Amino acid sequence: MTNTAGKPVIAIHGGAGTISKASLTPEADAAARAGLRNALEAGYAVLAGGGTALDAVTAAVVELESHPSFNSGYGAAFNQGGSHELDAAIMDGQTSLAGAVAGAKRIKHPILAARALAQQADPLLLIGEAADTWAQERGLEVVENSFFSTDSRRELLERMLERQRQGTAAQATEQEKHGTVGAVALDAHGHLAAATSTGGYTAKPVGRVGDSPIIGAGTWADDRTCAVSGTGKGELFIRTALAHSIHARMLYAGQTLAQAAQAQIDETGRLGGGGAGLCAVDRHGNVALPYDTEGMYRGWMNADGVYVAIHEE
Ligand code: ASP
């Protein structure tokens, strides 16, 4: 929990699926940290210029989607069928408008499609080919599905498929299992926003949709309380309505952001766990970045400075 009270702030995660500290090479460590910093700077530049939280989280997530270290956009995880199905969502805490895509295959920046959907009340969530077509018709950039592929994600797919054959999938490392990117922000006008984008988990069944595009599960923002973006075992986040529950604990039970966020991480543990983390900011500018995995790519930035971390540090 970081007290950044009263000032515009952006906080991000690059997924709870970090490489174990022992096997993270200095190059991979530096690349991930640079990616986090770029995203924070892109988001914070919007806030510092008097821009909206919605624009700030969009800018940060576009950066993260462009970076191969993180499981979203370019560098997204492969599904069991060897292709990429991308989920993303965004929510505006001022208006409660939200937009999301699930199972998109060709939208270069899924968060931009979610953002465009959030400019209208209906439809909120589009899936698969329809999402791709809708984005293309609105002038968003579309690419071949192979654009998102990287060698390291293909290696993870091979490893996961082998585990599935051997029946050892449950013992997969955090890096094999997880990854997502997200951003939350409080702007100078007192408004909150949250954005999340993911390739889901490696070797997920074709057609599987996680928590990220489900408003209230992996993504939530409400000016009265907080903005939340989650990363981890999506099925548990859906079953516990993770992001909305943090808001509800604050609004109805008077909990602080830190209490509410930790309680919902614990709640996923009660259902068996599987790895959970999130970034959140409240209406006062307090930031929470809890996780129960070995690490989580994460950071925040405000007028006082920038903080970036991967493991416990
Ligand atoms: N929450 C994502 C999903 O279930 C994956 C992750 O963050 O690890 O799709």
From TrEMBL:
<dbReference type="InterPro" id="IPR029055">
    <property type="entry name" value="Ntn_hydrolases_N"/>
</dbReference>
<dbReference type="GO" id="GO:0006508">
    <property type="term" value="P:proteolysis"/>
</dbReference>
<keyword id="KW-0378">Hydrolase</keyword>
<feature type="site" description="Cleavage; by autolysis">
    <location>
        <begin position="179"/>
        <end position="180"/>
    </location>
</feature>
<dbReference type="GO" id="GO:0008233">
    <property type="term" value="F:peptidase activity"/>
</dbReference>
<dbReference type="InterPro" id="IPR000246">
    <property type="entry name" value="Peptidase_T2"/>
</dbReference>
<keyword id="KW-0068">Autocatalytic cleavage</keyword>
<feature type="active site" description="Nucleophile">
    <location>
        <position position="180"/>
    </location>
</feature>
<dbReference type="Pfam" id="PF01112">
    <property type="entry name" value="Asparaginase_2"/>
</dbReference>
<feature type="binding site">
    <location>
        <begin position="208"/>
        <end position="211"/>
    </location>
    <ligand>
        <name>substrate</name>
    </ligand>
</feature>
<feature type="binding site">
    <location>
        <begin position="231"/>
        <end position="234"/>
    </location>
    <ligand>
        <name>substrate</name>
    </ligand>
</feature>
<protein>
    <submittedName>
        <fullName>Isoaspartyl peptidase/L-asparaginase</fullName>
    </submittedName>
</protein>
<dbReference type="GO" id="GO:0016811">
    <property type="term" value="F:hydrolase activity, acting on carbon-nitrogen (but not peptide) bonds, in linear amides"/>
</dbReference>
<keyword id="KW-0645">Protease</keyword>
